[in-house]
Write a structure and sequence with these properties.
Number of strands: 8
Strand order of the largest sheet: 1-2-3-4-5-6-7-8
Strand content: 5-15%
Order of helices and strands: EHHHEHHEHEHEHEHEHEHHHHHHHHHHH
Radius of gyration: 23 Å
Bound molecules: cobalt (II) ion
Shape: globular
Length: about 450
């Protein structure tokens, strides 16, 4: 029996605990050590890292990836990709998705974990196909949630389709950390029965279930678990790598992990964690256990968003009503998993329904687009009255939304001209236009400073 580990400190732990504010130079010094730890993979790119590099850290995300690749030649590098949304919240045309996947692999990614918020497989197929074409490893993730329409049988059937589509592994992605040990046992068994692919479990410690859930998942046959080095584990992050290695080894599981290397890695990150605690960017609250998500069946992040939204509108006394309305809106929308961008969409609509004193008096732009089918197929049936109110006589799309989008890459490349120095720059711009533009300008200004500096001594020669 063997179990393997994906280390998340550079991506999900970084994103969940410190809003993805870890600059490359802070972790550069430990990469060659991490390369010797024996991980199945290191999740280091995608998700919010790309946006954060450009927006807050003044780093070229592509260059970051190339540098990680160079420092870790022996480890599989992994990224998170939101299917047809890539790293953002809207659908991109297929040519952009293909180019993004191709360049990600060319710059050093081995494993691309691809998911869709609605589990609409049509939103995954282009990214999966392109990953396979470029000899990458396409790991298809199920966005895990519970609802009357999300049954074990349906998840198992979905996994069969994912295998047919070209997945090289399956991941159960429990972004809210609400999967219980019993649910993990049942779902892992059902998936292992339905397909022959390696199975990865991804969860968060938010509600305190994660260690038990990982243990039960491994007992039920999960091959890989996502964990974070201990000083960046717990709370909204993943369970601790060292703890699970210790417990599972004692139970007779084989691992490739070198525990001495884990000690070195943790010692390296400890002062970094302390620095973020001191600066306030790491709030000790996110490292604690919060079981509210289990009571309300909504993710912790969504709950804190709702609370701050109601506070801003001086309506915090309406919180209980909004919490009762939230599952009703979710039901009307056909039970979407409450993951970005659905969690925001459902939360804002529920708050509007309560604050305006009438359900769907004001229907948000995103909810309308959702009803139109722009996000894909809902897991369950939409409430027909809501659809009528949202769309009037307009007919929803039945096909794949991306099929309605014009190719964009070559056109944008031509428009950008010299501003973009590479295809990677063009992709950064397509993903986050304003932020990328600012970044390009800052990069140019920085270089001009250096040019002046090197020209000056030449002048003296004259
Ligand atoms: Co996660």
């Amino acid at each position: 029996m063997k179990v393997q580990f994906t280390e998340t400190v550079l991506r999900d732990a970084n994103q969940s605990l410190i809003a993805t504010r870890l600059p490359f130079e802070k972790f550069e010094g430990i990469l060659s050590t991490m390369d010797k730890a024996g991980y199945y993979s290191v999740e280091c790119w995608g998700g919010a890292t790309f946006d954060s590099c450009l927006r807050f850290l003044n780093e070229d995300p592509w260059e970051r990836l190339r540098k990680i690749r160079a420092a870790m030649p022996n480890t599989k590098l992994q990224m998170l990709l939101r299917g047809q949304n890539l790293l953002g919240y809207k659908h991109y045309p297929d040519d952009v998705v293909r180019k993004f996947v191709e360049r990600s692999i060319a710059n050093g990614i081995d494993i691309i974990r691809i998911f869709d918020a609605l589990n609409d497989l049509r939103n995954l197929e282009v990214a999966v196909d392109e990953t396979n074409k470029n000899n990458g490893h396409a790991s298809i993730a199920i966005s895990y949630t519970t609802s009357p329409v999300h049954t074990i049988k349906k998840f198992a059937a979905m996994v069969k389709d994912m295998e047919k589509m070209g997945a090289k592994s399956i991941c159960i992605k429990d972004m809210a950390g609400v999967m219980s040990p019993q649910e993990a046992t049942d779902l892992v068994k059902a998936i292992k029965d339905a397909c022959s692919l390696p199975l990865v479990l991804h969860t968060h410690c938010t509600t305190g279930l994660a260690f038990m859930t990982c243990l039960k998942a491994v007992e039920a046959g999960a091959d890989v678990i996502d964990t974070a080095i201990s000083c960046f584990s717990g709370g909204t992050s993943q369970p601790a790598t060292e703890t699970l290695v210790y417990a599972l080894k004692q139970m007779g599981y084989e691992t490739d992990i070198d525990e001495k290397v884990l000690v070195e890695i943790n010692n390296y990150f400890k002062p970094i964690r302390d620095e973020y605690l001191a600066s306030g960017l790491l709030d000790p609250k996110v490292m604690a256990t919060d079981t509210q998500a289990l009571n309300y069946k909504i993710p912790g992040g969504m709950l804190s968003n709702l609370i701050s939204q109601l506070k801003m509108q001086n309506a915090i006394d309406k919180l209980d009503e909004v919490l009762l309305e939230t599952p009703r809106v979710r039901e009307d929308l056909g039970y979407p998993p409450l993951v970005t961008p659905m969690s925001q969409m459902v939360g804002v609509q529920a708050a509007n329904n309560v604050l305006l004193g009438e359900r769907y008096k004001n229907i948000g732009k995103e909810v309308k687009a959702y009803c139109r089918g722009e996000y894909g197929q809902a897991p369950g049936k939409l409430n027909p009255e809501l659809v009528k109110k949202a769309l009037g006589d307009e007919k929803p799309i039945t096909g794949r939304f991306a099929d309605t989008l014009e190719p964009q890459f070559e056109k944008t490349k031509a428009e950008l001209g010299d501003t973009a120095r590479s295809d990677e720059d063009v992709l950064s711009y397509i993903a986050f236009p304003q932020i990328a533009e600012k970044f390009f300008a800052a990069r140019k200004a920085e270089e001009e400073k250096h040019v002046k500096y090197t020209i000056e001594p030449l002048k003296e020669d004259k």
